[in-house]
Design a protein that fits this description.
- With about 250 residues, the chain is an alpha/beta fold.
- The chain contains 2 helices and 25 strands.
- The protein is globular and about 75 Å long.
Length: about 250
């Protein structure tokens, strides 16, 4: 290959790398600038945003913010929809419609649609693409298109400490107790007791906690080792990362 062609090829590769770096730096700047926090709410006028709460950019559909309360240290992923009311610009009264407790996590692409009250308890974690709604379509009239029939609304309450897996759907009227585990893809309606695991569509209890017998049926995996008191997140991260002292000979 002629020398000039080599030089032009190297220059083109350098330009592509430089452009790629610039695009990634620019996108990180956009993400940081577009994120919503209590100090930087942007155009979103929530009823409350707690300290340390962050809505990642880009946000999904958000309306009815004056009736939405977000607790402290919540993590709201990209493209998460949060709505209060059937449509924007409605007067929904003096009380909040959608409430997230402290430490709630909503994974990327999740939807929380609150046409009547939806409450998510503190420290509840939702995987990506979870759908929580207080509204469902009616189909009573067999001659009218379903989308034109007035929807039914029932409050939704999710207790503290729950884990809701990827793609799960929480239907109107659902009441989840404390520390409930919802399997990925489950469709939940009705009441779920404390310390239960539900799976399926419709979801059914597949495991529950008995104070005397423990988990029934018993867990197939050993119980996790508790994190010792005083261990910092930085120390845990260092333990998780392979290093030159990791391995069976480390002592």
């Amino acid at each position: 290959m002629p020398k000039n062609r080599n030089m032009f090829s190297s220059l083109a590769a350098w330009r592509r790398r430089a452009l790629s770096r610039a695009v990634h730096r620019g996108w990180r700047w956009v993400q940081e600038t577009g994120a919503v926090t209590a100090d930087r709410p942007g155009a979103l006028c929530f009823r409350r945003i707690g300290e340390g709460t962050r809505l990642a950019f880009p946000q999904g559909t958000v309306f009815g913010e004056p009736w939405i309360e977000l607790g402290s240290h919540c993590v709201i992923g990209e493209q998460v929809t949060l709505t209060a009311g059937l449509m924007p610009d409605l007067d929904l009264g003096p009380d909040p419609i959608l409430t997230l407790g402290d430490g709630v996590v909503l994974g990327r692409g999740s939807h929380v649609v609150a046409d009547t009250t939806v409450t998510i308890g503190p420290d509840t974690y939702c995987g990506p693409y979870v759908y929580i709604t207080s509204t469902n379509h009616s189909y009573d009239d067999p001659h009218e298109p379903v989308g034109r029939q007035w929807p039914r609304m029932e409050p939704v309450a999710i207790g503290p400490g729950c884990w809701i897996g990827t793609g799960a759907v929480i239907l109107p009227g659902a009441v989840l107790g404390r520390n409930v585990v919802v399997a990925a893809g489950a469709v939940v309606r009705g009441e779920v007791p404390d310390h239960a695991v539900v799976a399926g569509a419709p979801a059914r209890v597949v495991r529950s906690w008995d104070p005397e017998k423990g988990w029934q049926p018993p867990l197939r995996t050993p119980a996790p080792v508790p994190i010792p008191s005083g261990v910092t997140p930085e120390q845990l991260l260092a333990l998780a990362e392979p290093g030159e002292n990791s391995g069976p000979a480390a002592g």
